[in-house]
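Task card 7
Instruction: Convert sequence to structure tokens.
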Amino acid sequence: MSILVEHFTPHLLELRRRVLTILVAVVLATAGAYWFVEEMVRALSSPLIQIDPELGRLVYTGLPEAFISYLKLSLLVGFVLALPVAVYQLWMFVAPGLRRQEKLVAVKVALSGFILFSGGALFAYFVVLPELLRFLLWFASEQIHPHLKLAPYLNFMVRGVFSFGLAFELPFLMVMAVRLGLVDPEYFARHRTYSYLGMVIISLLLVAGDPVATFMLAVPLCLLYEAGNLIGKLLKPARSRE
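Output:
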């Protein structure tokens, strides 16, 4: 027993040191993000300003609402900014136990996931969310004038960006499942109907029940599903081809 403790103690101490490094990076990144929080809110309000400059003047009705909203946004951005540090620390912890081929696979996986997530987030911010806002504000009239609150609007924008970022990971996960031999290359084609139903339900949950946003997320998800299905067939393992 004592031999096991002596063997694992250095690894546990190293893990604790790296976790503390990640926490410090999150705190520092959050503090730095809070310094520029007004610029971030202005960037998130940009789609509104393009529709109508007056709509960019968000309101809040509770005294702590603005502070809490700014703090939540800064913390989220802090996590994102500290992610490279977290990945590096975890990589340095596990890398000594990996072979060269495993290291190359891990780098490709991390890079592919990052690119797909970034592509989904940018697609949501520049394409989907502006059109969705324009549609939802179409119901405004002389009798109905929108006064958008700060906290719900920020939640709407951040949830939309992250939902699309996560959704764009779908082809990557499908291809990895095929390459690792977890599923047959024809599995996704056989279960297409159930998968579409599941994607609609997931879209509904991600956008908190908004039917228009659900449609605008479910359609790209279905297209990504077909892309993942096609790429998975093209890149299926040699054993499956035989």
